[in-house]
Amino acid sequence: MAATGPLPGERIVRVKVEPLEVRPLSAADEAEFFEVDQWAFGFDPADAELDAAREELEWDRVAGVRLGDPPKLVGIHAVLTQTLTVPGGSLACAGLTWVGVHPTARRRGVLRAMMRYHLDDARDRGEPVSALFAAEPAIYGRFGYGLTSSWVELTLGRGAALRDVPGSDRLVASFETADRTEHGPLVADVFERARLTRPGGVSRSRGALWDSAFVMPPSAQRGHDLLRLLTVRDAGGDVRGYALFTRRVDWSSTGADGTVSVREAVALDPVAEHALWTRLLDLDLTSKVEVRRRAVDDVLLHLLVDVRAANPRFSDALWVRVVDLPTALAARRYPVPVDVVLQVADELCVSNAGRWRLEGGPDGASCTRTDAAADLALGVRDLASAFLGGQSLLALANAGLVGELRPGALFRAAAAFGWPIEFAPGRARLGGGHRLRATDVDVPGDFSAAAFFIVAATLVPGSELVLRGVGLNPRRTGLLEVLRAMGADIAEENRREQGGEVVADLVVRHAPLQGIDVAPAHVPDMIDEFPILFVAAAAARGTTTIRGASELRVKESDRIATMATGLRALGIEVRETEDGAVIEGGVFGGGRIDSAGDHRVAMSFAVAGLVASAAVEIADCANVATSFPDFPAAANAVGFAVTPTI
After folding, report:
1. Which of 189, 382, 528, 598 is the catalytic position?
2. Is the domain defined by 152-314 classed in CATH 3.60.15.10?
3. What is the pTM of this model?
């Protein structure tokens, strides 16, 4: 029997089904983008928050869905280009953010369409994983994201007892009002150094993302004082940890009842961790310290004498989605040998589905398709949960989420997917008994060697120079930040990982430089590049002041004195200080320079010779061969006129 119409009293609702197409957005769509964002998240951001958001968004990675006639934006999402720390290494990561759907378009497939678009885009860009912090954690599991880590929040009483850590009292603490211009590089540096020691650490860009640590939304400002910065330093002045916090002081009949709200606290070792919390727990006019977003195995939980009194509250933290399964599994390391066949289910990324043979150990891994019988069966969501080593395959199997198809395979795979290696800055500890094998190592290009050519191309009018495969370890690239602050035109292209380090091709174009005050916070990240910075400062307009660089007095030469003397010989006005110099920009003349046997001084004055009005003769250059034996040939290949003399 065929139904030809509605039954008596039956209500018919006709729904117009519109095709869903996700399209890239641009900065021209900013107003619509933020309107959907406000509808989706139910808040009206202040100007400061919108300004921070504008800096954070990568408009070439923003997309959305329009529906209706005329079409109206109803769904949005954005991606941040990031790096994720994984056991034994790191991976390019698509950081999913700003996901929102207008209320009028809910339950119409908008979110699913955007997720398909995002995962396809990440795979096409060579990002093996995607990651996010979820506003609504119940949403993302159905798209293959697995919970890899959790947070704990604490409320500590003032003076909460900590266990002793030897050496904590020898660190020097300093309290300041936080300023992103002055303190941003410091915060970014310590954060990045700490991130690299913990799987699940997500990179922040050197720009907007670390700026966002300094943005105070109105809800956080209400009743609080200014954002403050606590740092702890060792005897050599190196920052070992920092905390960003605010205070709110209330009063009652018994006196002050203040609250310290710790927004972020990062330390490089247990000594610094203890020193930070000792100070934060003993601020005047406060009765409690609120701590947010600490890892469940955080050092603080082990330092507290009474954890229960801190009222720990747990919540989900990082969600990860495996986009390119073989690349992701092969990129991490495994603490014990593993040889297992995984039967993986994945509805959205069908290229991940099927059987995969994972072979590896502490020194590397491979993952290839196979027709062999499977040892374990699991969905891509649960594979993602175990990927970083924070969630156990055994625990997932006990919950019925992982199936053991070959007896004994589960226990061995669970041990391999864990990560018991202990890290500390400059040190990793791993048990012995592993077999080493030969391998190829692709060493990134040396940034210190590239620095001479970066400055040369910046100074010579009409220059455009591409330096390929330059290592961009954040502890080595302070000169880039300083030159950009002076006005240099330096672009990064083809950013990637090589030999365990981030590398990129640098495109440098001529640009006029302006003198600046070089903050001491930059010094550790460019200590070997100061000679060439002196040359750049001498060619800049105005005054450049360098402070906090006393270590230069005890390098291969007294580099402050040697560079100052050489610049004066070329007609530049320089005033030495105990820990730096004040350099007045000018025009280089010709002259004879004594490099004092210092290879970096010699190469720096070779760059000065490019823009000098007469020949520059540099004496005592034999030591150039210690770091850059091919410097004369490389320099002449790009337009220098270096003539060795005997």
Report:
1. 528
2. no
3. 0.64
